[in-house]
Every structure is written in structure tokens, then in C-alpha cells.
């Protein structure tokens, strides 16, 4: 079963009346089936946030965007954690010195000049250090 088929199965479970849309009431019911509570107001807010075409319900495309977006958020968080390992003193950037230090910890000995060259390859603004956004471009 591929990913899209799995999404369809979950979507159909949420879509209690089979009309191809998930209403706030259907969302609330599924959340309660999982042993959690979701107020009517919170369910309505969730549907409004997910509703891409403004019809007041969550369609399959909206649902897929939501599920895939969660995975993107996970990737972003993982990249932030990796970035923190390379930056030094919570400076918000990776310097040649901090890169050298982390590479040494990983068993790769590099000179400061070699680290400068490595950083320059992805240093989009040319300031000699990598910001998180530049790091993200490098990693993706």
C-alpha cells in the first residue's frame, strides 16, 4: 500500500458520512474515538485552518497538505537540532571555527582554511558564516 492509499484510508475513517469532506463534527468524533477531547469550537477552528477552498470542510487535498506539512515540520526541527550541534556559543551561525570543532568530534580533521572553503560553497550572503537558512539550503 503506497502513501496516498494510506492517506485515503485515514481520510475515509474521518469522513463518517462518506461525502468526501471532513466536517468539524466528524473531526471531533474521530478525536474522541482516539480517547482525546476536542471542543466544538476547537474543531471548527481546526477545520477553518485546514480548509483550502473555503467551503467550511476539509477535503482530501487539504488533508494531504496537513499530513505532509507535519512531516516538513519534523524535518525542520531535525535540521534545527543538527544546526545547533555545529554553531558555537548560541551565535546563530556556523563559523569556520565551529565547523572545524564539530568535524574534529566526528573524526575528520580539517584546517580553518578548509572549513572556510566548505562554508563559502553555501554562504549565500558572503559573510563567511552559515545562518540556519543557508544550512537548510545546504542540507536539502
TrEMBL record:
InterPro entries listed in its UniProt record: Centrin_CML-like, EF-hand-dom_pair, EF_Hand_1_Ca_BS, EF_hand_dom
Signal peptide residue numbers: none
Keyword RNA-binding among record annotations: no
GO molecular function list: calcium ion binding
Keywords for this protein: Calcium, Metal-binding, Repeat
Source taxon at top rank: Eukaryota
Residues covered by the EF-hand domain: 2-37, 38-73, 74-109, 110-140
Pfam families: EF-hand_7
SMART domains: EFh (SM00054)
Free-text function comment from the UniProt entry: Potential calcium sensor that binds calcium in vitro.
Protein name (Swiss-Prot/TrEMBL): EF-hand domain-containing protein
Source organism of the structure: Psophocarpus tetragonolobus (Winged bean)
